Amino acid sequence: MNTVGNMAVDPQSKCYISVNKKPKDIILPHPFNKQLDLLLPYASYELIKDEIQAHISSQVRPPLRYHRMRIPLSAILAHDFFNKYIKIGNVVMLSEGRIDVDNVYCLSDGKLRLSLSKESYERAGLIGKPARFGGGRKGQRWLVEFDLRSDKMMHGTKALERLVWCFSEVLKEPVTFLFCDLNQTTSQTDCLILQKLKAIARDILPSISISESLIVPSFMPPLGTAPDGSSDYAIEAWKEWALDLHEWIGMALIEADRIRADDKVDPYLSNYQVNEPAKTARRIVTIRWRGMIAANYIESVCNDITTKLAAKSLPTEEAWTAITVHGFENSPISWGDESHGSLTGGENCYTLVATFPTAAPSGQPQQFLSFEVIGSQDEHS
Fold it and tell me: Which of 36, 214, 216, 305 is 20 to 30 A (C-alpha) from 92?
């Protein structure tokens, strides 16, 4: 795996580019996702349409489901919820609010994280650390973290009972949460615990759109360029190609007119041109999921689609797919345990580009190019 380094895509953010970094190492540590986009050529889509339908048709398998609920923090520590979804199961939860202003709470991998104002932190009497981002001066915001799966966090223990008291007496106001069970089964019947909490179920049904006559760049780097090239020119030329490709993917996802074959914009207004375009315009398919999307679901989509495409015989100009994931701007963390702020943007998104060399054996691992875009207030950078 080659990590090429980072390049600023605007003054407040960074873009880290890697070659053949394992997709799971990017996908799974990123728990709070609000949008998943799958981009691929129409010809490739036609070849694996049945496999894609397995992910998007509610008749083939139950759709991914998440819930919206308004509950006090104390409900998370109630015996039934605590045992089913934290001690035994695995869920992600994120409260509403502005991460740099409001009290914001999240739960992932059994770890409860509280991003608190100075006033709330002092009233709660919990032990935390000053937040690196948000609140202006140091000490205006605080981060508190609890591993609820720890043996010390059992009902009746001093550690958990202290937290129960805090959530009952201080941080007791109801908060709106998004909730997603990572261990969803074939049954979509809500359990009684969620029904008692008046959780509102929402199924994520993706949309499919087809863009006609787009100018598509080459998904293969120019000859003589490489991320670990023998000269500075070869390396810089490769970086320029990679960033141009990343820009094109973003424009394709918003269906920008600038990449349409029939675009006649005045060069005075825009001089954008697709880098090394294909000889003919092409149809491109975008499949989009919106909601609270579990990381393990994204990994499943990525693995299934790339494995199926790798097993097909595709011409070079059709042998690619791109997956883009957008994280919630106001989550206390982005990747892993790395804290996150949004005062100057809050970006935490990534794009995985898979290409399938014709020389590679059918069904063998493909080549991955990854882009991780991170705002300036993020420990991941």
Answer: 305
